[in-house]
Structure prediction request, 358 residues.
Amino acid sequence: MKSRNQSLDVLRGIAIFLVLGVHMNAFPFWKQIGWSGVDLFFVLSGFLISGLLFAEYRATGNIDVRRFILRRGLKIWPSFYVFLFVIGTMLCFARTMWWKSFLWTSAFLLNYVTSPIPSTPHLWSLAVEEHFYVFLPLLLIFLLRWRGSFNLIPRIFAVVGAVCLLLRLLTPLPVHDSFTATHLRIDSLFAGVFLGYLFHLESKRFFRLARWKPLPLVGFALLLPLLFFSHQSFVMQTLGLTSIYAGYGCLLAWVVMKETNPTLKGIAYIGRHSYSIYLWHLPIALMCVGKTPMSFFAAICLSVVFGIVAAKMIEIPVIKIRDRLLPPVTSPIASVQGKENAGEMLVGGLCADPGRRQ
Prediction:
C-alpha cells in the first residue's frame, strides 16, 4: 500500500487555499477566515510527524532522533534556504538589506522577532514547526525511557493545551502583531499528536471517534468563531485559537478514513505541493499589486503554478535523494479482519511509505 492518503492531501489543499486568501483584500470573507489555514497545517503536521515517529517505534521498538531530524531537514531546509537566497539576492539588487532579520529567519527564530522584510513574515509558522520537530522526538524518547510507553500523550496534550491557553490569556496584545511564539502556538501541533497517538496506538478508539456521526458538526461548530471575531481580537487570540485547532482536529479525524474521491484529485495534487506554494505565495502576492478580483486570482494562480514548479525542481528531487540515503522506516501492516480493525489497516497504509508524505 504505497498510495498517498488523498484525504490528508485534500486537507493540505484546503489549508493552502485558506492561506492564499489572507494577503489581499479582494474578498473580505476569505481574508477573515483564511489565516486559520496555518492552524490546519499545524494540526496536520502534528498528526503526520507523530505518525512517522510512532511508526518507527512500531517497526523497530525505538526512535532515532538524529535520523528523524536529518530526514526532516532534507524535506524542509533546501526549499527554505533557496527561497531566502532568492529574496536576499533581490534585496541586494534593490540596495536594501536587513542582515539581522535574515539571520533570525535563517535560524528559524522569526516567530520571536518582527521582520521588516516584506516577503518573509509568513515564515514564522515554519519556525514553530521546526521547534516542534526537535521537541517531539525528544519527548517521546523521554517517555520511552521513563514509562516504556506513550500512554501519557493524552494527559500531556491536555497540559500543553491548558498551559498555552493560560499563557495566551496572560500575554498582552499585540505580540508581534499576532501570537506567533512557539510556546503560545504549539498546542495546535499537539492536537495532531494526540490524534496521531490514537490513530497509531489506539486505533479502535480512533475508529470509534472517526465514525461518530456528529463529529463533523462539532468540528464546524468549533470553527464558528472565525465568522464573528477578528484575528487580532483578544477572544480569537486566546480561546479562539483553542477552538480553531479543536475544530480542525475533529474534521481531520472525520476525513482521514474516507474513500478516495476522483473529483478531488485536483485539490489533492495542489495539497501535495503545499509547502513550496506556501513558501513562495507572499512575494508573488506582493507583486500582484491591486485589490481587484483579477489581481487576487492572478496571485493565487501564479502562487500555485510557481510553487508546484519549485517543488518539482527542488523539494521532490532532494526527497528522492534523501530516501535513497536514509530510507523511510516502515511499519508492518497488521493482519486484521472486521470493520472495527479498519484503523489498523489504514495505519499500515499511511506508514508504508511515510517519506512520500513528509
